[in-house]
């Protein structure tokens, strides 16, 4: 009886399936967003140069939402559970956004309406997703962490396949893939509506089939870690205000150079965010110095400053990894249409044929990721270790980006997507498997939320800066973003040399 109270029982394959199935629905929402929003924005009047600024909603909402939801879910317990209330809240709001998105052209300001729905969709997906990352740590013993994240990654890949192939499949079944100027094709409309239903059903399955451990059970499971929880906030009281002033000055400096250098106006947002963090950091330090550490702001800032060493090293890898991914999501569709199908006009059949081909080969990437997560990564990590496996997979993905830059036969892009799919699987599984045993389990939600800052921060940086870079160096020539993707994934791969596998 004592053993049962102090050690989490091993989960069966059915248990692993149930606790991760919701990610199938979450990823449907993300892929419908990632593979179609550039198309929708261009349809309702956005230019190619406008896309990075419009996409800023995705990383900004993640940057704000994930640490807050992580902190709150660590402290939540009611009759619905600890993480499950957030699953269902996110599912309801995301399904609503998916349902409304196809109606954007009918509103007086369709581009504004579409951008607003992107904010709602991404915030809702983050509300549901962030607790799912912590859910694996809640429910599984350390010996099953790697397996749990592998199953989660497999469902991510499966959900992505469903979402990416659906518009292409509808087109082959006779649903119209071309619409008049300013209207969204029926293939996209029906994909969003079906995706909303699938998302809600998948998350609902996890909520209904998985029982969370009670606070008393969690305390017994993690009793040996209880003393570690308060340390980061306590250390915050010993800090001076120098770092906060540096962030404030950096943000102000960036804002001041926008006009003189003729940079894109969205860079003001980057400066504002850095300055805001400086102000919030100063407030958090002040509260901690006055003994008022039991507040969300001080907790988040303190935990951010006191990240474990392994988490800091992996954060650098995540930063470069997700910089390339965001470039891929924004530009791959337009690149396929413009360079492989010779059309940059979203009203033409050639453009939409290219867009659907991108959706199809993106399906290949995610299908490969699902298979690699369960079959390839475990074998490689057993032979090479998790850190070296991740390094190898990132280098393979860099070759996939290079293929887009040098090839011109659209059929050969399938090989590029296989390589990028292997890297995608590793990005979703290996860093979390390495990190799991080094995080305080009682604060798993907040640490996962903070770790995901290094997923969304590079996306925000790309969204604010990439437009200025492309306009200055390669106006109307987005193919160069693929070379950028190859370079940053190579940097991320070699940054893994500083990371050791967690025990």
Please render the helix and strand layout as text.
Elements: H1 2-6, H2 13-20, H3 22-43, H4 51-54, H5 57-75, H6 84-100, H7 110-139, H8 145-172, H9 186-209, H10 215-221, H11 231-236, H12 242-261, H13 267-289, H14 296-305, H15 309-340, H16 349-384, H17 386-406, H18 413-436, H19 444-451, H20 453-473, H21 480-495
Helix pairs in contact: 3-7, 3-8, 3-9, 3-15, 5-7, 5-19, 5-20, 6-7, 6-9, 7-19, 8-9, 8-16, 8-18, 12-13, 13-14, 13-20, 15-16, 15-18, 15-20, 15-21, 16-17, 16-18, 17-18, 17-21
How many domains comprise the coordinates? 2
CATH superfamily of the largest domain: MFS general substrate transporter like domains
Give the overall shape, derived from the CA principal axes: globular
By oligomeric state, this entry counts as single chain
The CATH architecture assignment of the largest domain turns out to be Up-down Bundle
* Share of helix, binned: over 70%
What's this model, at a glance?
This protein is an all-alpha fold. Helices cover 76% and strands 0% of the residues.
Description:
By secondary structure, the chain is mostly helical. It folds into 2 domains: 11-234 and 296-498, Growth Hormone, Chain: A (Up-down Bundle), CATH 1.20.1250.20; 238-289. It is 76% helix and 0% strand. It is built from 21 helices and no strands. It has helices at 2-6, 13-20, 22-43, 51-54, 57-75, 84-100, 110-139, 145-172, 186-209, 215-221, 231-236, 242-261, 267-289, 296-305, 309-340, 349-384, 386-406, 413-436, 444-451, 453-473, 480-495. Helix 15 packs antiparallel against helix 18. 55% of the residues are buried. The model is unreliable at 225-230 (pLDDT under 50).
